Amino acid sequence: MKSYNFLFWAYNVIWLGLGVYLAVLLVRLNRTRRRVERLEQRVDELARD
Amino acid sequence: MSRTGDALLWALYGLTAGLMCVAIYMVFLYAPDELVMGAVQRVFYFHVPAAMVTFGSVAVLLAGSVAYLWTRDLRWDNLSLAATECGLVFCTLVLITGPIWAKPAWGVWWTWEARLTTTLILWVLLAACMMVRGYAENRDLGARLASVVGIVAALDVPIIHKAVDWWRGQHPQVFKPGSDSAMDPRMLNTFVVCIVVFLMLFGLLLAVRFRQAQLDDRVERLVQRIADR
């Protein structure tokens, strides 16, 4: 039973680690995409002025 | 990213998630218990592929570093950055799951055994690779320094691989090909599926992180254009 405890924690660490990393990457990617869109809009506005 | 690129990324994400479910089923319900170590040996089904993917990340890091130093094209540095970060994540998982297995098997969480120590050195080098980028005065200097540290990190990989033979370490070589102990075919199938899943996961994370780095460069260029006006 004790070895199942270790197994449980090992796999939880893996899921948590990979899940958190993937979530952080996707959030950062979306945030940067929005920033690029805003900056491109600003560049267009400046070009029109 | 283009719509095709996005669609491919989401397809890879779905495929990886699906195969991950298959891998979990195989690890816990399909593969039999190992005779000596018992249930805790199942840690290896993810521990070993994570180590393999760490080595794969370092191979990409080496290629990106050499290509950057050769061409000074920042796209190569972005590839190195993505590989470094992925390598650091997978190496961290290896260094956490290893001791979780070691405690019931060896009775200690950590021992300064050759393979463990050289893997820890790799983790430190990957962390150093990230830090020199962060602390460098400018982007080019950071990229150059990180490339050099990345090449040094790559030199550690063959040492990790051969550490058990060279220093007669106690780290097990459970899945060593060609070893005398024949592996149960169910264990081998499970192991192969886990390797495939981890490689796909690595591809996915590398692609997303590379894209992020490319977008960061684009932000920098746009900010510069606005400032110049």
Your description of this structure?
The complex is a heterodimer of chains A (about 50) and B (about 230). Chain A is mainly alpha-helical and about 50 residues long. Chain A has one helix at about 1-49. Chain B has about 230 residues and is mainly α. Chain B has six helices and no strands. The longest helix of chain B is centred in the last third of the chain and has 44 residues, at about 185-229. Classes of the chains: A mainly alpha (about 50), B mainly alpha (about 230).
Could you list some keywords that capture this structure?
heterodimer, A: 49 residues, mainly alpha, 1 helix, 0% strand, rod-shaped, B: 229 residues, 80% helix
N- and C-termini, Cα separation of chain A: 72 Å
The sequence of SSEs of chain A as H and E is: H
- Looking at the chains present, what oligomeric state does this protein adopt? heterodimer
Strand content of chain B: under 5%
Fraction in helix of chain A: over 70%
Q: Kindly state the mean pLDDT of chain B as a whole number?
A: 89
Q: SSE order of chain B, as H and E?
A: HHHHHH
Structural class of chain B: mainly alpha
> What percent of residues of chain A are in strands?
under 5%
Approximate shape of chain A: rod-shaped
Q: What is the helix fraction of residues of chain B, given as a range?
A: over 70%
List the helices and strands and how they pair.
The complex is a heterodimer of chains A (49) and B (229).
Chain A: H1 2-48
Chain B: H1 3-30, H2 44-71, H3 74-106, H4 114-135, H5 139-166, H6 185-228
Helix pairs in contact in B: 1-6, 2-3, 2-5, 2-6, 3-4, 3-5, 3-6, 4-5
Give a summary of the structure in a few sentences.
The complex is a heterodimer of chains A (49) and B (229). Chain A is mostly helical and 49 residues long.
